[in-house]
Amino acid sequence: MVKWIGNRISFNESKARTTIVIEPQRNSIVNALMGAWLAMWYVIGVVILLYSLDHIYTEKEQIILWVFSVFWVYYAFRVTKSYLWLMFGKELIKIDEVGMHYKRSIRKFGKSTLYLFGNIQDLQFEVPEEGSIQRVWESSPWINGGERFTFSYFGKIVKFGRKLEQKDCNLLYSLVSKRIQERKKK
Hints:
By secondary structure, this protein is an alpha+beta fold. The chain has helices at residues 28-53, 59-88, 133-139, 166-185; strands at 2-5, 9-13, 17-22, 89-96, 99-106, 112-116, 120-125, 147-153, 156-162.
């Protein structure tokens, strides 16, 4: 049976494992505007490409076209990735007797990584202050970061829990730390 903690976090428990799903913020107006912007960006790129195939350019014009093309491809990739995350993404955390599995997925695509309990150290979370530059930056829909939880695993910092609020972080922290302690004992 699926239980909810907060608006974006659900979990399902069985004797063998606890599965936690963190969904991105769903805002239909923002998603529609971002989709429209992305569609216009693709139209601009296609029009420039078709126009450039039909004309001969000087060396300076070719350089300008290449600079624009690199800029266009970079933003097309970044914004498409962010848009797909907003529409179809989720973070999956599975805690079983072996360890904690973490997967950041878009639909079914993504790689699950296993973190063994004995090597997870210093699980903590941090939420930026209201009105801070970091909070404003992370609140924009095209930014994929904003992970609130961190832990150390063999000296490497692992992050998860994108753009969670303080209340959600408190509830998720108590759930994850409690389940890790329970599974460690087995």
